[in-house]
Amino acid sequence: MSLLLPLLLRGAGGARGALRPCCRAASRRGLSSSSGGWAGVRPGRRSLLAGLAGAAAALAGLGLVRRAEMVSREAAAEEEDELSRRCGDFMAPPVSGLRELRSRRQDMRSRMEMLIMETQSQVCRALAQVDRGAAFTVDRWERKEGGGGISCVLQDGNVFEKAGVNVSVVFGHLSEEAAQQMKSRGKTLKTKNGKLPFCAMGVSSVIHPKNPHVPTIHFNYRYFEIENADGTKQWWFGGGTDLTPTYLNEEDAVHFHKTLKEACDQHNPELYPKYKKWCDDYFYIKHRGERRGIGGIFFDDLDSPSKEEVFQFVQSCAKAIVPCYVPIVKKHAHDSFTPEEKLWQQLRRGRYVEFNLVYDRGTKFGLATPGSRIESILMSLPLTARWQYMHTPPEKSREAEILEVLRNPKDWVH
């Protein structure tokens, strides 16, 4: 600014010393609007005053620019403080690190990582509160091929036998087996020298309660990005939330599905029925002729209408996890149960294990990805399960009631 003023004054046709006479002349003659403003000033001094006016305007403009820069810096600092505050509520520091997230804060990879970290924290804190004093083991791990994750596991609690909430953020090159799985789902993948760079991130959880009257819940929300040989990128989201009760409680089923429907309806009323059917079809144990549970929502390979719109939808679904499940847990956590009911729970958990090891895409992808952490992949399995030869429940029993729903899915909300 100190260099700008003399240059502007010299450009107006006068030296810096001409400022005082000009001001005195202007003072003597006056610049009233009735006299035409500039009318009483001699031409040379008019030029100088015009230069001064231009200088003042330029300085004012420079001040505005500097103020704008200051506001911009302050806004950036506030954003960084907000990012730090959000990260401070996580179960552990983010996988990618705060500096990396700041450097690409508007990138979908960063936004999705923040969402899955927040979801992990919200769910773990809600479950710990219900379990009254039980603590999660927080295990941070790294994958030598790229990335890592944070596993939060509660075992042998007061309410939960096993509750795991896992976050993973991995990158590298897809294995041939993993790429083949994606091709089988219609993905067109263009490799370079046989390699396919990718990044994948998600939050995944299975919660197995002790009481057979409290259902098991599973949820998973994930984002995939693949770089083709020509530099173009393919991206998609996937996920869902589903419920597996040991015994049917229609009031709970309605609450669960209604909460998920409300989350879907914020974006499009056609989503819930579509993803509810997809869920029923996906969690089908073909060799048993049964669904794993009473469903929920499920979607995969979602890449339209736009990346932002799909992300907002996924965010709504993630926020619905605690309200769709925790009220059911609180309602039944202290219900009494018999040894026979506990036995039925163990048999149903056997079905859960069968689905996860034989059909589940996430399990299959994890096992096919080099450097995957097996403990995190198999976190979904219960501590206890049972297989009993040729077990058939009595007709019209509560056990037979849930089997009927698993074989013939119902519409719980309309």
TrEMBL record:
Originating species: Chrysemys picta bellii
Recorded family membership: Belongs to the aerobic coproporphyrinogen-III oxidase family.
One GO CC annotation: mitochondrion
GO BP annotation list: heme B biosynthetic process; protoporphyrinogen IX biosynthetic process
NCBIfam families per record: PRK05330.1 (NF003727)
InterPro entries reported for this sequence: Coprogen_oxidase_aer (IPR001260), Coprogen_oxidase_aer_sf (IPR036406), Coprogen_oxidase_CS (IPR018375), TAT_signal (IPR006311)
Known partners and oligomeric status: Homodimer.
Pathway(s): Porphyrin-containing compound metabolism; protoporphyrin-IX biosynthesis; protoporphyrinogen-IX from coproporphyrinogen-III (O2 route): step 1/1
Molecular-function GO term, any one: protein homodimerization activity
EC numbers, comma separated: 1.3.3.3
This protein's name: Oxygen-dependent coproporphyrinogen-III oxidase, mitochondrial
Catalytic activity: coproporphyrinogen III + O2 + 2 H(+) = protoporphyrinogen IX + 2 CO2 + 2 H2O
Domain of life of the source: Eukaryota
UniProt keyword Oxidoreductase present: yes
SUPFAM superfamilies: Coproporphyrinogen III oxidase
Keywords per UniProt: Heme biosynthesis, Oxidoreductase, Porphyrin biosynthesis
Top enzyme class: oxidoreductase
One Pfam match: Coprogen_oxidas
